[in-house]
């Protein structure tokens, strides 16, 4: 028997659905916040190592974004992600 999902988990899943299906474009700093909060909320800390300069630079920005939120709990990262969606994506 699966445990019941919390209200936070349900809200996070809905926020992710909105973010992943929007046609809106965001500035790089906002995209990095989405990225970092999502990765922290889902415990996905893997950053793919790229070979060319442009993608290495992007990876460095992603690593920096993750470093800045390293002390954030998984639950707080979900809340921050939901706040970003509510701020930037209105349906």
Automatic annotation (TrEMBL):
It comes from the Bacteria. This is Uncharacterized protein.
């Amino acid at each position: 028997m699966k445990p019941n999902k919390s209200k936070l988990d349900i809200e996070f899943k809905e926020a992710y659905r909105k973010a992943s299906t929007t046609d809106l474009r965001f500035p790089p700093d906002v995209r990095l916040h989405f990225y970092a909060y999502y990765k922290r909320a889902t415990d996905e800390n893997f950053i793919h190592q790229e070979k060319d300069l442009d993608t290495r630079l992007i990876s460095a920005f992603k690593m920096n974004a993750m470093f800045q939120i390293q002390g954030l709990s998984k639950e707080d990262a979900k809340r921050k992600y939901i706040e970003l969606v509510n701020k930037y994506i209105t349906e």
